[in-house]
């Protein structure tokens, strides 16, 4: 099939081209992000392959459906950026990559926890600068601390296991209990109790209407003073304005983000020669206890191999009229 790959980076070319030796589709790599402006580029292509910050709202989907496009092959697990109801009504099929490497995201999450706690990013810069002072680098033992894991699916359950390996007490919250997490020693509690008792709160639930701004002024008030908050899931789980207020008050003691509500305008591109116009994001960068990575938690070799294989496998299954095991439909979850 003819596939238009939007937001194509060099690593997308490398891994998709490698996997395509087994699938033999006609891949065209397009650098622009999918948007109302770039969507007409997809007109001759039956498949549009999109990533997390591509726009797949109703206006874009209408442009795609007016051309040859019949399949949206997401190369991501999250599908909160797709208007599934609009896709359904336009006859567009949407597939995703449900689990490519939960370990990659879980390990990055714990990397943020360790770096923030022991200030590894600051220590690295200090030592290179000939500054061997320890002032300001004081951390705490993770052992016996309480960590709260919100969302205990594929990624959350691995975070639970790693944190149990550090001898943390783990509290969990999810709308569905995961027996593996309980077997690993996590205790399910109500969200309010998790927030009130946790030294570290880490988010691993999807962005759906029920979880939009799950962390807001009210939920932050319930948390311990000096709490560590980690979000490697989706930016809009967190109300950034409330988080900035809590950082200024010292309520949040550490903030680790791999995702940001308005990341689409920033992440995955080099803006180092430009003035960043997003004042909320630049305010976040001024705090000494904030560590931000640019949506890289998924970014391992193993994950890219599986993303490429599953994405092209979805396209092949669609072309052959086979059952689409990775299809997502509007009836599943409410997309926002
Ligand atoms: P998953 O579907 O396996 O697990 C999600 C869990 O969240 C499920 O157990 C589900 O029951 C739970 N959940 C749903 N609604 C909830 C609610 N209202 N409150 C609490 N829990 C709720 O998904 P996963 O593979 O573990 O991925 C989790 C999220 O991580 C994805 O939705 C995606 O947004 C994000 N993600 C980020 C990256 C990255 O690079 N930063 C990479 C992959 C995935």
Characterization of this structure:
The protein is α/β, with parallel strands linked by helices and 336 residues long. The chain folds into 2 domains: 131 residues, Rossmann fold, CATH 3.40.50.720; 191 residues, 3-Layer(aba) Sandwich (Rossmann fold), CATH 3.40.50.720. Helices cover 35% and strands 15% of the residues. It contains 12 helices and 12 strands. The strands form 2 sheets. The chain has a 7-stranded parallel beta sheet, with helices on both faces. A 5-stranded parallel beta sheet has the order 2-1-3-4-5, with helices on both faces. It is globular. It starts with a strand and ends in a 17-residue tail after the last helix. 42% of the residues are buried. The model has no long low-confidence stretch (mean pLDDT 96). It binds nicotinamide-adenine-dinucleotide. Nicotinamide-adenine-dinucleotide binds next to α4 and α6.
Describe this structure in a few short sentences.
The protein is α/β, with parallel strands linked by helices and 336 residues long. It has helices spanning 10-20, 58-66, 84-90, 102-118, 120-128, 154-165, 179-183, 191-197, 217-222, 240-249, 279-285, 301-319; strands spanning 2-5, 26-29, 47-50, 71-74, 93-95, 146-150, 169-173, 187-188, 200-203, 227-231, 252-257, 290-292. The strands form two sheets. It has a seven-stranded parallel beta sheet with strand order 8-7-6-9-10-11-12, with helices on both faces.
